[in-house]
Amino acid sequence: MKSGLFALAVLLALSLGGVMTASAGSITAHEFAFTSIDGTPLPLSGFAGKVVLVVNTASRCGFTPQYSGLQALWNRYREHGLVVLGVPSNDFGGQEPSSETEIKSFCEINFGIDFPMTEKTRVSGSSAHPFYVWAGNELGFMAKPRWNFHKYLVAPDGRLVDWFSSFTGPSAGRLVAAVERILPQRAAGGDGPPSD
């Protein structure tokens, strides 16, 4: 009887382990694609080997000044393997009602934005973009966007490694440290990011 229970326990453990192995890490961010703000395909696989900070943005939000910090972060680390990806969304408070052309112009004129941006995208609710559905499932309910300027950090291999609420600005020490830890040059034993 005891050996039968032991065998059943081992079989159950092995089957659960197999299920966990098959599902854990089987999907990465690189399997998703957006459309750029200019209307061209923007597959995340194009950023393989780079760290990607995915940020849902809005032009008429109290957090809109974070665009300056996002551009500064992009300027500082882009040569070290960071991509900032802006995802305009009108999901929260109707604070991004403009067209893609107007959004792009607003960002360039007011903040000098030259990092990649997507077309206006749903990031919450039942019609959220598949990347956002996946990210919420991967990191849990608390990690889902609740407002504009929510941030997801994607490692060079496409794994989600962290998330930051709207209140965590682009220059926050916790966010910058998380980016620096996974920059490709640092992972490859290079010089790492600049110290300024």
Structural class: alpha+beta
The CATH topology turns out to be: Glutaredoxin
CATH second-level architecture: 3-Layer(aba) Sandwich
Shape: globular
Overall radius of gyration? 19 Å
The number of helical runs is 6
- In CATH, what is the homologous superfamily? Glutaredoxin
Q: What letter string, H or E per element, gives the SSE order?
A: HEEEHEHHEEHH
Distance between the termini: 67 Å
Biggest beta-sheet profile: 4 strands, mixed
Outline the low-pLDDT stretches: 1-24, 187-196
Global mean pLDDT: 86
The spatial strand order of the largest sheet comes to 4-3-5-6
CATH class: Alpha Beta
Features:
single chain; 6 helices; four-stranded mixed β-sheet; 36% helix; Glutaredoxin; alpha+beta; two-stranded antiparallel ribbon; disordered C terminus; 6 strands; 196 residues
Give a structural overview.
This protein is of the alpha+beta class. It has one domain (34-187): Glutaredoxin (3-Layer(aba) Sandwich). 36% of the residues lie in helices and 15% in strands. It has six helices and six strands; from the N terminus they run αβββαβααββαα. The protein has helices at residues 2-23, 66-77, 100-111, 130-139, 173-182, 184-187; strands at 33-35, 41-43, 51-57, 82-88, 151-154, 160-164. The chain has a four-stranded mixed β-sheet with strand order 4-3-5-6, sandwiched between helices. The protein has a two-stranded antiparallel ribbon with strand order 1-2. A hairpin with a 5-residue loop joins strand 5 (151-154) and strand 6.
